[in-house]
Write a structure and sequence with these properties.
Quinone Oxidoreductase, Chain A, domain 1; Rossmann fold; 2 domains; six-stranded parallel beta sheet; 9 helices; 28% helix
């Protein structure tokens, strides 16, 4: 058995330690497909795992990283053979199963999907869980019957990974996009992705009224807490908010007023355990609908050695757009 480079989180007397070191292939977890990883990405959850700011990691030692793109090295799963290009998002990777910040992983083949032909491995990880989640949110709004002619759509945490891709996808679909951010200096960046308006996040930060003036028909929220409560109170009759994040907290200090007086819907969006058919649809649409130029404009590429500092930066709100981690 060989060794390979990986970011490893372990427990110690003071909490947890994390660093890049050699990892023995013999210590990989059970699975029917072994993948040589070429690229991963940085999500808020990865930052929480690296910093220990939240109990993301459920076993130790753990290799973090919830996304990967790479090539199958060995497989006993009939759906995959050596040389196949694949993508994986979620399924407990980096939480309960050794993750993607490593040159090699062993996983269940049922977790993998083929890399869309229109995307390179680097582009797929520029999308990553963040972009894939943004597409799931757009699909949830569409399943609810919402279309651009109903009114504007708002995106919170718009400078972040999910937010940046959500702005680009909504704009491409014809929505008038309102981008909410606490970083007004990034207004030009958001407008380059397709935002029509910039809203300071402070307007959504205070305690909300049960109902406020109707402002948008749809929304994609990455923040939660008071921000989500305010979004709901300002959603137009029959509108909906797709909620997929908790950067502002897990609580929801809202009332039932928007639901029973304006027929507003709160659509929960999970990317970790989403069924394979839904994943395939989301990735197929991403390959067709996400502007590659806008994707490149929101993406920074870093080597594996810089993922620890990047993890701290994303938790501190200092990351813009998407970060691809080059593993090989």
């Amino acid at each position: 058995m060989s060794t390979f480079r990986a970011v490893v989180i372990d427990k110690n007397e003071s909490g947890q330690s994390v660093g890049v070191r050699s990892f023995d292939e013999a210590d990989l977890m059970d699975g029917d497909v072994t993948v040589r990883v070429s690229h991963s990405t940085l999500n808020y959850k990865d930052g929480l795992a690296i910093t220990g700011k939240a109990p993301v990691v459920r076993r130790f030692p753990m290799i973090p990283g919830v996304d990967l793109a790479g090539v199958v090295e060995a497989s006993s799963n009939p759906a995959f053979k050596p040389g196949d290009a694949v993508v994986l998002n979620g399924w407990g990777l980096g939480e309960t199963h050794l993750g993607a910040y490593a040159e090699k992983v062993r996983v269940k083949g049922d977790w993998l999907i083929p890399l869309p032909q229109a995307l390179s491995a680097e582009q797929a990880m520029a999308v990553g869980t963040a972009g894939y989640t943004a597409m799931l949110c757009l699909m949830a709004l569409e399943r609810h019957g919402l279309r651009p002619e109903r009114g504007p759509a708002i995106v919170t945490g718009a400078v972040g990974g999910v937010g940046s891709v959500a702005v680009a996808l909504l704009a491409r679909a014809g929505w008038h996009v309102i981008a909410s951010t606490g970083r007004p200096e990034e207004a030009d960046y958001l407008k380059s992705l397709g935002a029509a308006e910039i809203l300071d996040r402070s307007e959504l930060a205070g305690p909300g009224r049960p109902l406020a003036k109707e402002r948008w028909a749809a929304g994609i929220d990455t923040v939660g807490s008071t921000t989500l409560a305010n979004l709901l109170s300002m959603t137009k009759y029959g509108g909906a908010i797709a909620a997929c994040g908790l950067a502002g907290g897990m609580d929801l200090p809202a009332t039932v007023a928007p639901f029973i007086l304006r027929n507003v819907a709160l659509l929960g969006v999970d990317s970790v355990m989403a069924p394979k058919a839904l994943r395939m649809e989301a990735w197929s649409r991403i390959a067709r609908e996400l502007d590659h130029g806008k994707l490149a404009a929101m993406t920074t590429v870093i080597p594996l050695d810089r993922v620890l500092e990047a993890g701290r930066a994303i938790v501190e709100g200092r990351i813009k757009g998407r970060v691809v981690v080059e593993i090989a």
